[in-house]
Amino acid sequence: MEAIIIGITKSAIRLATPYLYASIGETLGQLSGVLNLGVDGVMLMGAFSAFYTVLKTGNLGLGLLVAIVVGAIFGLLIAFVNVTLKAEQGISGIGFYIFGQGLSSVLFSVMIGSVHTVNGFPPLPIPWFSDLPLVGEILFQQNILVYGAFALIPLSWFLLTKTPLGLNIRAVGQNPQAADSLGVNIVRIRYFTVIAGGILSGIAGASLSIALLNVFQQNLTNGMGFIAVALVYFGAWRPLSVLNGALLFSTVNAIQIWVQVKGINIPPDFTLMMPYLVTIVVLTAMAKRRVRPPAALNKPFQRGEE
Amino acid sequence: MKYKRVREILTGLIPIAAFLLALLMGTMMIAILGINPWVAYQALYNGAFGSINAIADTIVKATTLLFVGLGICIAFRAGVLNIGGEGQLVVGALSATIICLTFPDLAGWILIIIALLVGLLSGAIWGGIAGFLKAYFNVNEILSTIMLNYIAVYGMNYLLRGPIMDPLQVKLGSFIPQTARLPQAVDLPRLIPTRLNLGIIIAIFFAILVYIFLWRTTIGFRIRMIGQNIPASRASGINVPKYMVLAFFLSGALVGLGGAIEVLGVHHRMFTDGSASGFTGSAGFNGIVAALFGQLHPLGTIPASLLLGALLTGANKMQRVVQIPSALIGALNGLIVLFVVGSEYLRRSQARRVELITEVGYNSKHKSKKEDE
Fold first, then answer.
1. One GO MF term, please (chain B) (predicted)?
2. Residues of A numbered 13-42 whose beta carbons fall under 8 angstroms of chain B's beta carbons: which are they?
3. pLDDT higher at A191 or A267
4. What is the distance of C-alpha A306 from the center of its chain?
5. Is B143–A85 a contact, with Cβ atoms under 8 angstroms apart?
6. What domains appear along chain A, each with residue ranges and CATH number?
7. A93, B71, B117, B231: least buried by Cβ within 10 Å?
């Protein structure tokens, strides 16, 4: 029993990684007032580009770097369409999703063609800590992208609550008119958060293809990017609560995988359905809370308008 | 007056410009892949229009896109985004299939009508769930519809791999996840001896119906009004949550009907490759493109669906002839969406400027100048 719990907890920690990167990135964007629904498409592009680089060069660091660059380019495009062109953010997000999914499929069929595997980031035990009983095995024998994801939580919390930049981000999302009149450059702040979000989505994709699963196939993410957006609502735009949500989902995933591997007699389609069902239930349950989304979310800024 | 005409023409040109721009990007991508774009587009054209069969396939593909597009029109006009086309197609098709397999002895046309109605109703319920959660719990409808898509697909996979799997597959031991072929009596009548069936006529009929509904009835007017201005609608006594649910319900109904017609008219059985697109061919997403491309107008969606249907049908041929993955059209569809929503702001600000300068005079000209700074 103990071994089962350790196994599930350990894989839950691992599987939280892509959710954490993508959700924290989305949190930054949403706090500044930009709803980016293209996360899943960017994740797919990040996953593909990292995987392809590693497949051809074997260089994991380079793979991660390429995913970051691709994520940044997508972030820039998303910011351009949503901030500069003031597009309806719900629809443009779906556009980016369809585009990213299509492009990653095309590139995959042309440049790779069939399913390969790569050697992803190896576990990196942290000296001393990894020898601790229980906790050592669960927390400190993971790979570097897992550590990075968890380090992101205190970092983003610090950025958002303790720095002038974080204050500006939240001001731009709550009351852009006031922020504007105080001389905050709204366009620059929103470009910053959306590009940061793109980079983090790219890393989220890379964490799947070169650290957790070590494969790429068409539509690898299977809607993970949308769940990541849901986690931002779940976490009420606070990094620590986003972490809780990510762990909830990764635990559901880990149990689902465990049930399948053990051959327990539940149709796999029902266990696979769980994360999506849980998302809807959780979103509904969260709806009646008193937490409100950033006031300017999904509203392009036009100087001089109410 | 003169400027208004200019504006109308500009509005009509934007989707076409968006389409050409996307095509240009596609050309560049094809060239980068090291293939002569001219040869590729020739294959695409032949695949879509090269023979009677090709044209029939194009129209068949457009049928489903039109149903989805019409559903999207109603939802978007009400100000809610229905991204759940994939799920609603699957649910509609699945329930129609189950009805036909359960009551094979009913007279053909009665069974057809019942199956289509059941498909329509189950799509409506699937969409209605998202509408209900949006209206009464403020759950983001994009997220809920996406999740409902996955739930529908895994439900379909479960049913096709177990309870309603073709008994023949079980006997042969090949276990391909598909149902038995539906009784021939429920095949939709063919218009000419190709795959072209009654579906397109029903789809166009519904396009006209949706147009009349949205622009000539009180309920349609109220649905459009909540899409324009929720506070004003509330002030004028419209029950906003009720109409929001209704819009989603009707949206899902049209998509569900499209799914049922796809089964009865084209495949005559339900099958899965594990993902939604195996059965739907991503029509749930491409229908969004058709609706946006048709300016969210039911009648505009008809030519838009035909054009996209041609692209998608041609892309299969292009894949066979010059080995360009048909997913390229998916990428181009994403670009079309982005160009259309991206240009919306330019069009609006252009229109506003024209209005300000011509119709109000110096003061507002001054003001609009100030806005530019």
1. transmembrane transporter activity
2. 37, 41
3. A191
4. 33
5. no
6. 2-118+140-286 (1.10.3470)
7. B231
Largest CA distance in chain A: 63
Closest residue to B142, CB basis, from A90, A277, A280: A90
Is A183 an interface residue toward B (CB < 8 Å)?
A: no
Phi, psi of A117 (to 5 degrees): -125, 155
- Per-residue confidence at B43, pLDDT binned at 50, 70, 90? very high
Task: Establish, for the pair of chains A and B, how many residue pairs have beta carbons separated by less than 8 Å.
Answer: 151
CATH class held by domain B36-323? mainly alpha
The pTM for the full model equals 0.90
Min CA distance, A275 vs chain B (Å)?
A: 9
Each residue's pLDDT tens digit, A246-299: 999 899 889 888 888 887 788 888 988 988 999 899 889 887 776 778 888 888
Residues of chain A found within 8 Å of residue B274, distances taken between Cβ atoms: none
Return the residue of A nearest to B292 by Cα.
A91
pLDDT band for B62, please (50, 70, 90 cuts): very high
